[in-house]
Amino acid sequence: MANLSLKSIKKVYANGFEAVKDFTMEIEDKEFIVLVGPSGCGKTTTLRMIAGLEEITSGELYIGDNLVNDVAPKNRDIAMVFQNYALYPHMTVYDNMAFGLKLKKIPKDEIDKKVKNAAKILEIDNLLNRKPKVLSGGQRQRVALGRAIVRNPKVFLMDEPLSNLDAKLRVQMRTEIAKLHKRLNTTFIYVTHDQTEAMTMGSRIVIMKDGVIQQIDKPQNAYDNPVNVFVAGFIGSPQMNFLEGKVEKNNDIRIKVSEKVILSLPEEKQNILNENGYVGKDVIIGIRPSHIKEAKENCDNSYSVFESTVEVKELMGAETYIYTTINDRQIIAKFKANTEVDFGDTAKFMVKGSKLHIFDKETELTIF
Amino acid sequence: MKKYYMHVYVENENSTYKKIIEQTLHLEEITFADEYFIVIANSNDIINDANILYNNILLDAYYQTFIAIAGQVNNIDKSELKKRCINIKSYRDKNFPQKNILNYSEIFLHNISNTIEKKDRDYLFKTIFCREFNTFLDDEIIKTIDSLFENNLNLTETSKKIFIHRNTLLYRIERIKQITGYDLRKFSDAIIFKIAWVLKDK
Question: Which residue of A46, A97, A271, B115 lies most exposed, with the fewest beta carbons within 10 A?
Answer without folding.
Answer: B115
